[in-house]
UniProtKB/TrEMBL annotation:
Residues 1-59, 181-224, 452-471 are annotated as: Disordered. Residues 187-216, 453-470 have a biased composition (Polar residues). It comes from Rehmannia glutinosa (Chinese foxglove). This is Exocyst subunit Exo70 family protein. Component of the exocyst complex. Residues 284-657 form the Exocyst complex subunit Exo70 C-terminal domain. Keywords: Exocytosis, Protein transport, Transport. PANTHER family: EXOCYST COMPLEX COMPONENT EXO70C1, EXOCYST COMPLEX PROTEIN EXO70. Residues 50-59 have a biased composition (Basic and acidic residues).
Length: 671
């Protein structure tokens, strides 16, 4: 549309326009169009509206915009004048401006060929937003005269065009908000991999930089969640237009829904489901919680701060609503887990969740407003308390399970008992969390002290000290005390189980096996070793030596009696029948020991080697000496073969077959 002069709107039309109580917008538009056609007959063909709509339109709109601004100023000034002076009439160009903006909205929002926001040139988009801003200002100014009937039609007309324009802006704002990308993240360090950002036009980039420089001069824009700088710049401009245009609630609603969906999609990708939360892996929950604290919460805050740069209260309200809902959803899962049935295998998952709550909350202290942070902190503290109670209960259940393990069937071969393996492996892994568990037990101890009238079973004060070898009192931490208590219960249980063996030597082997296993687990872990201490390990080593001596005495002491020289000579002469009986007794006894103890089990190679070496050192020299001194009394041949069944090398071979758990027939060498 070329320059449209006010001359075509004569005084008569102006008065008719003002005096018509119910003017029809379509008639007005048709009247404008007929006058435009008359004007076109006088305009050269090269400037005809149908032949070229793109070039003249910005010029007309610019001229009309100046007139609208002047009219708004006039209205604002007149409102402060004497009430006896009537406000000015609505000039023709107000309707003309409304028609032109409506036409532009119709072009963009056409059902046949709609124009997306990113298809507009920078000039077109800037002109359109300026027109909306001017419409909004005009609508607000006219509304101040709503009691005057002569403004009613114009108020309705401008409001209708503004509503249609806002509908288009709202739809484009929503579309841009939904144009995010979910990117892979590395929860281990909390850094989100960044997308390749589309390069905005130079003018768009300049506009964006001008918008954000004042509030965030050092902001890294690549950190905004899934949006290119170009889209982010458009979001800023459209949000401003919606707020200025009186559509703040619609803007906030679209933003909230889009970002909530984006966050839920991100959580879903991390493995966290909103529904049936108890069925998901706790590992996924921990990953999600850490990722939200390290990436999503900070990113959402930066995004809302930038999109609503001129309206910080809107930014804070939206961010709090989004993050609060997400935080509660995540914390609710942790709270539900803490209330589930306590089972030993859940200890480590509870510990992981406890540590995640404790450590991750520190990273978001400066992100949330104080009121919201206090709410989150209170909820997390309550959940930590429940998790702590669950962990204390699990240790009590461990104690009870050790006490209740009273099986009457001894482990074959005196091997390490399953209870020993389970308990020590459990404690070993638990001690990897020793600092956290010590914190849990300390907090529980404080609660018990504050409520001593409850008669709690968790009184650690009576067990919080132990004596070291030089009678110095060493104060134990609460978890250290708990560990000592469990170890003592395990010792007592194993001592009772050792009495199930009728053979005292096998009882000693059983206690050696289990004691050695416990000691190796303690020494093999810095965490559990530091808790139990050197004096405890020395005491264990001393106990093992006593069991070893008891085994040697029960088994090999009796065998060596056969090799004692007492009673073998009378008046300096060897008593052959007695020698024969000694050899026969030794052979029978050694056969029985080999047959029996080859089935016994010593799984620890070092302990097995130590036992064999000590037996060899005890038996082989004594047997060789006995054989050398008294083997000569037998007549070579059948008599020697009958009584001298073993040579020294044979004894050594058979000793090396002890404690394998699978006996080989006597006389057959192992391959």
């Amino acid at each position: 549309m070329n320059v449209i002069s006010e001359a075509h709107f004569g005084l008569e039309e102006h008065e008719a326009l003002q005096n018509d109580d119910e003017p029809n917008p379509e008639n007005i538009a048709n009247g404008i169009e007929s006058e435009i056609k008359e004007e076109e007959e006088e305009i050269p063909a090269e400037t005809n509206l149908e032949e070229d709509r793109s070039s003249p339109l910005p010029l007309d709109l610019e001229k009309l915009s100046e007139e609208i601004d002047q009219f708004i100023l006039t209205l604002s000034t007149s409102k402060g004048d004497d009430e006896s002076t009537p406000p000015p009439d609505v000039p023709h160009f107000v309707e003309q401006f409304a028609v032109m903006v409506e036409a532009k909205v119709g072009d963009y929002d056409s059902s046949d060929n709609p124009v997306k926001w990113n298809q507009l040139t920078e000039e077109d988009s800037a002109s359109f937003l300026e027109a909306i801003k001017r419409l909004s200002s005009l609508s607000n100014t006219l509304s101040e005269f709503s009691s005057d009937n002569k403004y009613a039609n114009s108020i309705n007309r401008i409001g209708g065009v503004l509503q249609r324009a806002m509908s288009y802006v709202e739809e484009e704002f929503k579309s841009l908000l939904e144009d995010y990308k979910i990117h892979d993240s590395d929860p281990s360090n909390g850094n989100e991999s960044q997308p390749k950002q589309s390069t905005p036009s130079s003018s768009n980039q300049e506009s964006y930089q001008n918008t954000t420089t004042e509030s965030a001069p050092t902001e890294d824009h690549n950190n905004f969640p899934g949006y290119s700088e170009e889209i982010l710049s458009d979001l800023i401009r459209l949000s401003k237009a919606m707020v200025v245009g009186g559509h703040e609630s619609e803007c906030c609603q679209e933003y909230f829904v889009a970002r909530r969906n984006a966050l839920e999609e991100s959580l879903h990708k991390l493995g966290f489901e909103k529904h049936n939360a108890l069925t998901i892996e706790i590992v996924a929950w921990i990953t999600t919680f850490k990722q939200c604290a390290a990436v999503h919460f900070p990113s959402e805050k930066k995004l809302s701060d930038v999109v609503f740069l001129d309206h910080p209260w809107i930014s804070e309200s939206l961010f709090c609503s989004l993050s609060q809902g997400l935080a509660i959803q995540i914390l609710n899962f942790a709270g539900a887990v803490a209330l589930t049935k306590r089972a030993a295998e859940k200890l480590f998952k509870f510990l992981d969740m406890y540590e995640a709550l404790r450590d991750t909350l520190q990273t978001i202290e400066n992100i949330f407003p104080d009121e919201l942070m206090n709410e989150i902190r209170t909820e997390a503290s309550m959940i930590k308390g429940r998790l702590g109670e669950a962990m204390i209960s699990i240790f009590i259940e461990l104690e009870n399970s050790i006490k209740a393990d009273s099986a009457k069937t001894p482990v074959p071969g005196g091997a390490v008992h399953p209870l020993t393996r389970y308990t020590m492996n459990y404690l070993k892994y638990a001690c990897e969390y020793k600092e956290t568990l010590d914190q849990v037990f300390r907090e529980h101890q404080k609660i018990e002290r504050a409520d001593s009238a409850t008669g709690s079973d968790f009184n650690y004060n009576s067990q919080s000290q132990q004596q070291n070898p030089v009678n110095e009192v060493v104060k134990q931490s609460p978890f250290q005390t708990q560990m000592t208590k469990v170890m003592d219960l395990l010792d007592a249980n194993l001592e009772g189980k050792s009495k199930l063996y009728k053979d005292h030597a096998l009882s000693s082997i059983f206690m050696m096996n289990n004691g050695r296993y416990i000691l190796q687990k303690v020494r093999g872990s810095n965490e559990i070793g530091s808790l139990m201490g050197d004096s405890w390990c020395r005491k264990r080593s001393s106990d093992l030596r006593q069991y070893h001596k008891g085994y040697q005495r029960e088994t090999w002491g009796k065998l060596l009696n056969c090799l004692h020289p007492d009673g073998l000579t009378v008046n300096g002469k060897v008593v052959k029948p007695v020698v024969k009986e000694r050899f026969k007794s030794f052979n029978a006894m050694f056969d029985e020991i080999h047959k029996t103890q080859s089935n016994w089990v010593v799984s620890d190679e070092q302990l097995r080697s130590e036992l064999r070496v000590s037996i060899s050192n005890m038996v082989i020299p004594a047997y060789r000496s006995f054989l050398g001194r008294y083997g000569q009394v037998f007549t070579p041949g059948r008599q020697t073969e009958k009584y001298v069944k073993f040579q020294g090398e044979d004894i050594e071979t058979y000793i090396d077959e002890l404690f394998d758990g699978n006996a080989a027939p006597m006389g057959r060498k192992k391959p």
